[in-house]
From TrEMBL:
<dbReference type="InterPro" id="IPR001781">
    <property type="entry name" value="Znf_LIM"/>
</dbReference>
<dbReference type="GO" id="GO:0030018">
    <property type="term" value="C:Z disc"/>
</dbReference>
<dbReference type="GO" id="GO:0003712">
    <property type="term" value="F:transcription coregulator activity"/>
</dbReference>
<dbReference type="Pfam" id="PF00412">
    <property type="entry name" value="LIM"/>
</dbReference>
<keyword id="KW-0440">LIM domain</keyword>
<keyword id="KW-0479">Metal-binding</keyword>
<protein>
    <submittedName>
        <fullName>LIM zinc-binding domain-containing protein</fullName>
    </submittedName>
</protein>
<feature type="domain" description="LIM zinc-binding">
    <location>
        <begin position="64"/>
        <end position="122"/>
    </location>
</feature>
<dbReference type="GO" id="GO:0005634">
    <property type="term" value="C:nucleus"/>
</dbReference>
<keyword id="KW-0677">Repeat</keyword>
<feature type="domain" description="LIM zinc-binding">
    <location>
        <begin position="2"/>
        <end position="63"/>
    </location>
</feature>
<keyword id="KW-0862">Zinc</keyword>
<dbReference type="GO" id="GO:0046872">
    <property type="term" value="F:metal ion binding"/>
</dbReference>
Amino acid sequence: MNKCGYCDRKIEHEPALFARGRLWHVNHLLCDECGCRIQEEEKFEEREGIIVCRHCYLYGKNPRCAGCLDGIDVKYVEAMEKIWHRTCFQCSICMQPLNRQFVENDRGLPMHRNCYWKELLYKEIVTSFISNK
């Protein structure tokens, strides 16, 4: 039986959020930093059992880098709806720093455009080769 992590009432055929390994009624999931209610379509972060709303994640007292998960106390890059240390915002293929012109692959990882197209072409060639055998 699915019960709300806040009120412990049954959740049946109604919208719900999943966090901390449990379901929550919409408006019953609260940010652990500011106490605001996390809405149905709102993005939130969950790390080590702590839930924070998007605003607190980006601008709260302990913002964390999406790359290394360490705290950010210096200049940072905001991209892909996350914040990163400048040195952590790098291409997932060549591991070189990224600038504002990048693409996000189907796994949600940032890449240089050239690396993205090389990877896509490589996959196409391999898939074509395997299916022609």
